[in-house]
Amino acid sequence: xxxxxxxxxxxxxxxxxxxxxxxxxxxxxxxxxxxxxxxxxxxxxxxxxxxxxxxxxxxxxxxxxxxxxxxxxxxxxxxxxxxxxxxxxxxxxxxxxxxxxxxxxxxxxxxxxxxxxxxxxxxxxxxxxxxxxxxxxxxxxxxxxxxxxxxxxxxxxxxxxxxxxxxxxxxxxxxxxxxxxxxxxxxxxxxxxxxxxxxxxxxxxxxxxxxxxxxxxxxxxxxxxxxxxxxxxxxxxxxxxxxxxxxxxxxxxxxxxxxxxxxxxxxxxxxxxxxxxxxxxxxxx
Amino acid sequence: xxxxxxxxxxxxxxxxxxxxxxxxxxxxxxxxxxxxxxxxxxxxxxxxxxxxxxxxxxxxxxxxxxxxxxxxxxxxxxxxxxxxxxxxxxxxxxxxxxxxxxxxxxxxxxxxxxxxxxxxxxxxxxxxxxxxxxxxxxxxxxxxxxxxxxxxxxxxxxxxxxxxxxxxxxxxxxxxxxxxxxxxxxxxxxxxxxxxxxxxxxxxxxxxxxxxxxxxxxxxxxxxxxxxxxxxxxxxxxxxxxxxxxxxxxxxxxxx
Lengths: 285, 256
Fold this sequence. Notes:
The complex is a heterodimer. Chain A has helices at about 5-35, 50-55, 60-90, 95-110, 115-125, 130-135, 150-175, 180-185, 190-220, 220-230, 235-245, 250-280; strands spanning about 35-40, 45-50. By secondary structure, chain A is mainly α. Chain A has a two-stranded antiparallel sheet. Chain B is mostly helical. Chain B has a single domain (about 40-255), classed as MetI-like (MetI-like fold). Chain B contains 11 helices and no strands.
């Protein structure tokens, strides 16, 4: 291109080299590491090996992967079911209240997530808020076990991930042409028919974006499982952390994260497909 | 239907705020385990300040957050300008890289950075943390600045060039002033992202450079900790302030 000034060259060189060194190379190294031989002291050996991928098919790892996906799926579903009405109603609020609701949503979201997980512990603990409340009102005689259960982990994951579902949904719903909904209602569509045939298809990209934003990262939130679920390896994140920081088994840890990357890639490809199909139909409005 | 709406909104906000409110209340509660309200005190804040380890970790985290936010805003703004105004080879690859950095779960980035730093021989501590934090903030600052750039009147730049302004002058006298609100909100967003990070920090820091998430994790793993309650209260207030400032910035941007 003509008129390349020094400042242009400097900008492109700085940004480009930063992205190569800290964006592309680390991911490539990660994938390469997953194909290296395992070594308990040196982290890995510089030899090509499928060892780690073979090990992934062990019963124990498959179990963690499936359990992880189950946790992520339940969390995503909860976020969607409770977040969708939130995003929709917020989008229909008058401007003044809408901003207030969004601010109220953002404040916890911008607070350290470890602190929020700790806060959930104070609610669910043996001497936590719920137990104290139930004991005090005489509904129960002895504290019930809420913390260190699978549901405690789901409560925590939902708590952290809900805004990640609401914000893409809201961005989608805010742009939606509400006249289409009014037209459908005027033409005699009832609430459910209108939702199924008009609102749902138009907000599908938002739903899907929200699900991607929640589903994959959820599987990595090891500290939530550590603090709320007790000592068990509940999520892939726990497994990866265990293999990297405790067992020094980098190839296996890398192979586990390559699985996560693949899940992510498949979901993104599917998202691209949905968006394309929708715009192809002229439904993007 | 209207009542249902109110009940629903209230329910969600109770869920979001009650846990935080309990932490804040217990930061001022004389009973250190928060079993009942025993009266108001600020002694936990004093104890927190006297906890040298906790204060050092806080200082480290704040230093990283300030530096990472500044660098990420600077590089992100340059990236936004470069991507929206120049054509160069590999542009789409770089844009794809930024999107990948944005979408990738933290755990992937965390171990990718760890592998990189160990392999190229950067010892885990201040520099590894800083470089990692700058990188994961970068896509967010880029997107924020780019949104502002796209809303800018392109004729302004043409006019400046026609009047003989150099590339640098255009950058300093026109683009920068117009971008100021976006730069400031990028900075706040990066600062928040950096302070909020648990996963990447857990992997790329070393024993010599303790940061908040690791410190908090070790303190709360065994149970309730009043010093953490006090610190958490300060952090909640900080995020409240940041959200309010960025709302004001958005309003200012809209009025222009």
